[in-house]
Specification:
This protein is an alpha/beta fold and 246 residues long. The chain is 27% helix and 20% strand. It has six helices and ten strands; from the N terminus they run βαβαββααβββαβαββ. The longest helix is centred in the first third of the chain and has 23 residues.
Length: 246
């Protein structure tokens, strides 16, 4: 099946978060009806966490059998496990603490108080991910066009494995672990979720033929679908024929 790209534009960031939440619930339910299980790689960031809060408060939340969802992350900050900057901690507070998950199916990147170096955390995650199925990988988009912890012109962009350690990140904290293009692009669907005018230029570039080394968001693609979920401000420089307004 040929992969397709779709851009859906919502009027505000709040509407975007709520719509993305409803869309993810439906996708997980559909996957469970087909295979009995579902899997998703979560993202952090303002809209990503707002989406998880919207799921937690949704009347449809419990249509998902959360105990049969494998939870992954697209990237993580290599800081202590309890650090408030950890994507895992933010996801737990926003959603995972409010649903009946199976902890054996929550796959977190090891923290700096669990392993000595980010390289070991990345290797451990790659081993766990090697045979995993990913229904959806969720990604935020930075103002510089980064996704996960894949930053423009950074050495991690050239990694051929499933994960990479990131040092000297241009966005703090400097040490991180991330899925690579190879891992992200194995997912059935990749959703890029972004809000705000600060993202508009790089999103426009990613959808207009920019190279992935300069604009990493241009280098990700789901096996069956790549879905850009944007608010109106973030979509300001998307070529008009590509937009699907809501």
């Amino acid at each position: 099946m040929m992969s397709k790209t779709q851009i859906v534009v919502h009027s505000t960031a709040d509407m975007l978060a709520c719509a993305a939440a409803a869309r993810l619930i439906t996708t997980l339910v559909d996957a469970q009806q087909t295979r009995g299980t579902a899997s998703v790689a979560l993202t952090g960031g303002g809209v990503g966490i707002a989406m998880l809060r919207a799921i937690a408060s949704s009347p449809a939340r419990d249509a998902v059998d959360w105990g049969n969802v494998d939870i992954w992350w697209g990237d993580e900050r290599f800081v202590p496990r309890a650090d408030s900057e950890r994507n895992e901690r933010q996801a737990r507070e926003a959603l995972l603490d409010h649903v009946r998950i199976n902890e054996t199916r929550v796959h977190h990147f090891a923290a700096s108080d669990e392993l000595a170096v980010a390289e070991l955390a990345a290797e451990q995650y790659a081993t766990a991910l090697d045979r995993a199925w990913l229904d959806v990988v969720l990604l935020g988009v930075g103002p510089d066009g980064h996704v996960a912890s894949l930053f423009p012109e950074h050495p991690a962009l050239h990694e051929g494995g499933l994960t990479a350690a990131v040092h000297g990140s241009p966005k703090p904290p400097p040490n991180r672990t991330t899925l690579t293009f190879s891992a992200i692009n194995r997912a059935e669907e990749v959703w890029l979720i972004a809000a705000g005018e600060a993202k508009a230029a790089m999103i426009g570039a990613a959808l207009s033929g920019a190279g992935p080394m300069q604009v990493p968001a241009a280098g990700v693609r789901g096996r069956t679908r790549t879905l850009w979920l944007l608010d109106r401000a973030a979509a300001a420089q998307v070529p008009a024929p590509l937009r699907t307004p809501f």
